[in-house]
What we know:
Oligomer: single chain
Mean pLDDT: 96
Structural class: alpha+beta
Amino acid sequence: MTLNTDTITLGGGCFWCLEAVYERVRGVVAVESGYCNGLVVNPSYEQVCGGDTGHAEVVRVSFDTAQITLREVLEIFFVIHDPTTLNRQGNDVGTQYRSGIYFRNAAQEAVSREVLAEVNAHHHGRAVTELLPEANYSRAEDYHQHYFANHPNQGYCAMVVAPKVEKFKKTFASRVLPA
């Protein structure tokens, strides 16, 4: 059986939150934490956290288009983070935590523009999500991959990540992978 997969890169605050949710989405086949749209080639986590590289913390979400559409992937994205806060999500502050959709082709750009326009209308013009071609992507260090799955009781995971996972499960019950 051959999968028809597509991949989109999303930034919505700390990548641990997005990764934890998308790893539980029916139709998502891979999630990778990384950095993109900055100036430094292959930056370290410490460099990105310093705020000087221009990178966003992101996840690359690969999904089976027969099971879930890009629109649905983006609808989840806009529920699990706040697209109206510039360069922050909760207590995470800095340009690396900006809201962004980083597309790979014109078809992704078109769907993303449509969904973003709907979100912006819903938020009365306050959405600050950037929509740009993906550039200068690099995979985050190994210890960031599957972080919530590996550290569910760590403080940040318990207090910040877990509530986003629960919000996803409640809002998109039909999209949750079986346990």
